[in-house]
Write a structure and sequence with these properties.
88 residues, alpha+beta, 2 helices, 4 strands, 24% helix
Length: 88
């Protein structure tokens, strides 16, 4: 797996999700999606996105994006995330 390419995919996915409102993110709690994506270089990756409570129910929402190439990296995917904060 090309780690630079995988990190770029993660950053692009997170950039699309960071604009979500808190209300929309809360509505997606428990969502777990998996899709395949072919990179510009032609490599096939599995992109997994999860929405969960960051620390406690009713608090911030954690969005995690993981990428692997379906090989042994599927046991240890590259993962990054962001927190969508509850407005005070």
């Amino acid at each position: 797996m090309n780690k630079d390419e995988a990190r770029r995919i993660i950053r692009e996915e997170l950039a699309q999700l960071e604009g979500l409102t808190y209300a929309v993110a809360v509505g997606r709690i428990g969502e777990h999606s998996v899709r395949e994506l072919r990179s510009a270089e032609g490599n096939l990756y599995r992109v997994e996105t999860r929405f969960s409570w960051d620390d406690e129910q009713g608090g911030d929402v954690r969005v995690s994006v993981s990428v692997d190439d379906g090989g042994w990296r599927s046991y240890f995917p590259l993962t990054e995330g962001l927190s969508i904060r509850k407005q005070a």
